[in-house]
Amino acid sequence: MLDFRMETFLTVCQCMNFTRASEKLNITQPAVSQHIRYLEKHYNTKLFRYEGKKLRLTGAGEILKNASLTMMHDEKSIQSEMLHTEEESEIRFGATRTVGDALMARILKNYLLRYPDAKIHMEVGNTRELLKRLDEGEIDFALVEGFFKKSEYDFQQYSDENYIAVCSPEYDFQKTPDKIENLFQERLFLREEGSGTREVLERYLDSKNLGISDFSRVTEVGSLQAIKELTKAGCGITFLYEAAVAGELKSGELTRIPLLDFQISHEFAFIWRRGSIYADRYRELFRRFSG
User: Fold this and answer.
1) How far is Cα 86 from Cα 82, in angstroms, rounded to an integer?
2) Which residues of the chain form beta strands (DSSP E)?
3) pLDDT tens track for 100-133
4) Is 163 helix (H, G, I), strand (E, B) or coil?
5) Backbone angles phi, psi at 56, to 5 degrees
6) Count of helix runs (H) and strand runs (E) in the chain
7) How far apart are CA 132 and CA 73, in angstroms?
8) Are 159 and 280 in contact (CB under 8 A)?
9) Cα(first)–Cα(last) distance of the chain, in Å?
10) Cα separations (Å) of 107 from 95, 242, 287, 288?
């Protein structure tokens, strides 16, 4: 059970403001300050510092935050196990939308054929949402295609996937699409912020001193399937993992845009909180999911 002062610390980390933290915890601001001073005295180090008027974590504060999130996550897992001591515990995990659509049906089919009595709860969300759920202990692990801090999570690489630009075979380009700049006049279909699929493109563009804003027409769509349907209909172009459009590429409903300066691949990873006492269990589940 986390000490109540650690809960205060994590709330301050979330709000980065003592007043907002006190309101969220429904305690006084002096009480929040007292809890933080107790922890700083206990660990003999400063946990926060001010940069101007902004509150920041110190290096020691970052270490304590990451350790506390892992402890909170494990505590919720322990509570769940205690409530289900007479039955097989439930596997609670998350998958990003691309992983969910492209891989999870096959992964779960193979798993359930081998373990027909398994209890499974799978959530689907973007990478940012799943990392938050993981930190809060709502899920045990996640399969993601997005970026995550490897200092905060342990992981196993599931696969390495090509990331490509696609369009309808009949799409009429305004310029010959041999480099990414020639696509800026086309309508770009893009996932929402927090999506790993989007972040791959954003990071690539940033490395070229470019950005999403260089596309003259951008349409955000939260549904991967809707993006594929709109692209198949010739309404614009998009960037997706090849695994997510393998069927459409094979059937000829979509085609790869042959960019000369765009060769990208990115890993799909199986992740959990770094330092978790359940690490061996998660590695075994990864082995079973991969088998």
Assistant:
1) 9
2) 48-51, 54-57, 91-96, 120-125, 141-144, 153-167, 187-190, 217-220, 237-241, 255-256, 264-273
3) 888 899 999 999 998 898 889 999 999 999 998 9
4) strand
5) -130, 150
6) 11, 11
7) 11
8) no
9) 36
10) 12, 18, 11, 9
Q: For residue 238, give the amino acid letter.
A: T
Query: Tell me, what DSSP letter sits at residue 138?
Result: S
Using CA atoms, how far apart are residues 6 and 113, in angstroms rounded to an integer?
Answer: 43
For residue 120, give both structure tokens.
């499974």
CB–CB of 162/170 below 8 Å?
Answer: no
Residue indicated by tokens 């082995």:
287
The whole-angstrom separation of Cα 146 and Cα 279 is 21
Q: How confident is the model over 144-193, as pLDDT tens digits?
A: 998 998 888 999 999 999 999 999 999 999 888 999 999 999 999 999 99
- The token duo for 37 is 């001073």
pLDDT tens for each residue of 191-243 = 999 899 999 999 999 999 999 999 999 999 989 999 999 999 999 999 999 99
Separation between Cα atoms, residue 177 and residue 174, nearest integer Å: 8
Q: What is the rounded CA–CA span in Å between residue 271 and residue 142?
A: 5
- What whole-number distance in Å separates Cα of residue 144 and Cα of residue 130? 8
Q: Report phi then psi at 219, rounded to 5.
A: -120, 115
Residues 6+ away with beta carbon under 8 Å from 20: none
278/9 Cα distance (integer angstroms)? 24
- pTM of this structure: 0.70
In whole angstroms, what is the distance from residue 147 CA to residue 162 CA?
15
3-state secondary structure of 94: strand
